[in-house]
Amino acid sequence: MLFTDGSAHPPSRIGYGAYLAVTDTNIESAVQTKRFENTSSSQLEVETLIWALQTLQPKTVTVYTDSQNIIGLPERRSRFEERNYRNQKNMPVKHADLYREFFCLTDQIDCTFVKVKGHRVSDQKTDIDHLFTRVDRASRRALRSDTHCI
């Protein structure tokens, strides 16, 4: 299982991505964080997932995310490719290079994507929600500790 999240500071265009990898043999691994520059929230979510997949190089993985963009990418792929990553006005799709990289990675890795609802009330959280909360808090904590984003 792979849990990913990101937290961005729009004025500075700085963000922090976080991931937590959980395997059958390693339930309590540490959350990893990374600083990204010149990013936005939707871009950061994809950048974080790409970083995690490249770092871990799993053969198969279930990805838990609250990013609707990531959840919807597999369904949008054929439309992107049919239009050569251009929109209806024939302008390049924003983040096209990231999407290409995402598809290249997910062609090599058997990925299942699961949408988690972020920020649930504690007494309504499942075990999955508790694990996701760890990456959510780690990315927000890292962003808050960055002096450029205060």
Itemize the secondary structure elements and their pairings.
Blueprint: E1 2-9, E2 14-21, E3 32-37, H1 41-56, E4 60-65, H2 68-82, H3 96-108, E5 110-115, H4 127-145
Parallel strand pairs: 1-4, 4-5
Antiparallel strand pairs: 1-2, 2-3
Helix pairs in contact: 1-3
Short summary of the structure?
This protein is α/β, with parallel strands linked by helices and 150 residues long. The chain contains four helices and five strands; from the N terminus they run E-E-E-H-E-H-H-E-H. The chain has a single domain (2-75, 102-126, 134-149), classed as Nucleotidyltransferase, domain 5 (2-Layer Sandwich).
Characterization of this structure:
- With 150 residues, this protein is of the alpha/beta class.
- It has one domain: 2-Layer Sandwich (Nucleotidyltransferase, domain 5), CATH 3.30.420.10.
- 42% of the residues lie in helices and 23% in strands.
- It is built from 4 helices and 5 strands, in the order βββαβααβα.
- The chain has a 5-stranded mixed beta sheet.
- Strand 1 and strand 2 form a beta hairpin.
- The longest helix is centred in the C-terminal third of the chain and has 19 residues.
- The chain is globular and about 45 Å long.
